[in-house]
Amino acid sequence: MGKFKNQSLISTTKQLQCLEEEGSDECFSLKSTTQSHTHGVQPLGNLYLSSGSINSRDTGLGNLHTLSDELVLEILGFLGASELGVLSTVSKSLYVFTNHEPLWRNLVLENFVGGFQFNGFWKSTYVSACYPSFDLSSNELRSFKVRDFYSDYLFQSWLCANLEMKPEWLERDNIVRKKGISVEEFVLNFEEPNKPVLLEGCIDNWDALRNWDRDYLMQLCGDVKFSVGPLEMKLEDYFRYSDQVKEERPLYLFDPNFAEKVPKLGSEYEVPVYFREDLFGVLGNGRPDYRWVIIGPTGSGSSFHVDPNSTSAWNAVITGSKKWLLFPPDVIPPGVHPSPDGAEVASPVSIIEWFMNFYGATKNWKKRPIECICKAGEVIFVPNGWWHLVINLEESIAITQNYVSRRNLLNVLDFLKRPNASTLVSGTKDRVNLYCKFKNAIDGSFPGTIEELAEKEEEKKMQQRKLPFWDSVTDANMGAFKFSF
């Protein structure tokens, strides 16, 4: 992880110096609501430009100064709140490290799985939850600054939380857009060839598109709690958090059981006509998780991943807008490191940091990513196996579903019967037996379908391998004979 952090900060000093200069491709803009760094941390490059300065980060750590910032924070992550509080009094440097917001975020998420009321900062959220009578009205400690403290790692977290998306990151839109096409055209031109498409106008009849705003959802859902990362939260508490949060990786509300928790939510949308064949339905209640309501503030989203169980997916935006980047299955996005068996995907940088470090390079790739901004009322089709990244450009509400049609049934079955399926399959407690259950259910409900699809797939492969006679003896471009022995 450190490599990516350091690489990005090599140029960060130059970029920050020209934040106010217009017309430079090297520059970034900070959000209008940006506050100065909580404790005055500066990028390491500023130390080299400041003659005679000493890094108080090192002097305050003593013999521990040889450790990387990541390792210092990893060690501090083993401590509880009381230990961090005591350690923060040892030196100004340790004060900065022990007040690093992600440390306190982890403590909140570990200790308050039933939800919390965000209080502007993660540390004050923890303190107010544990000690409700404690007076948090004073901002003196929050504004405490440490002079000459230089750290790329700590500064980067603040920078990524406060950067605006650059216009050039949003201008590319090369996805195919369709409106009013038939199901047959969708299958022939997009689902069969496994190509993304953005569909317009196919959810215009949804009550959700007309009704779902904050007030309506909070009134409808009341005290119902939804999945937010590792915990459960009421919508009122989640919106309180999303209104105040300024962090690199905002928590995302991503709930697979929303329609069971609040049945009216499930009744206010319907699956677009293009995606209604969902063969996982033969498993009834035993099917893996397949649909989610998604709510997140500006800057929240999902880093590069491939959808679970080799399924295809559709994602419908109800309010807000989302930036999408998609790479085909044979192109691993830069900065992403999947394990050989595909069980794990390491993406050591946040979404904004990925744009800072890697987005520009994709301009010159032969296989450039498919990109678009998906707005309210639009639906994107994500074919199985495609890598994709999504970031909310504003507060957004969406519904997404993963599904299995005849076009990707064989892919899903092949995935489910892999030797390491127990580590790959997700969304179900019975990972080991899902293949057998699914195959038997398909055979029972649609006899002969698997064999028929397998035969067609083999015929297709043979046609691709077999070169037509005239193609073997003539050059189609030159109109002349050629010889092949």
Automatic annotation (TrEMBL):
Needed co-factor(s): Fe(2+)
PROSITE patterns named in the record: FBOX, JMJC
UniProt-listed InterPro entries: Cupin_8, F-box-like_dom_sf, F-box_dom, JmjC_dom, JMJD6_ArgDemeth/LysHydrox
GO molecular function: cis-regulatory region sequence-specific DNA binding; metal ion binding; oxidoreductase activity
Taxonomic superkingdom: Eukaryota
Keyword Iron: yes
Assigned GO CC terms: nucleus
Keywords attached to this entry: Iron, Metal-binding, Nucleus, Oxidoreductase
The JmjC domain, residue ranges: 260-420
Domain F-box: 61-107
UniProt subcellular location: Nucleus
Matching PANTHER family: ARGININE DEMETHYLASE AND LYSYL-HYDROXYLASE JMJD (PTHR12480), JMJC DOMAIN-CONTAINING PROTEIN 8 (PTHR12480:SF21)
Record-stated family: Belongs to the JARID1 histone demethylase family.
Protein name, entry field: JmjC domain-containing protein
Species the sequence originates in: Lupinus angustifolius
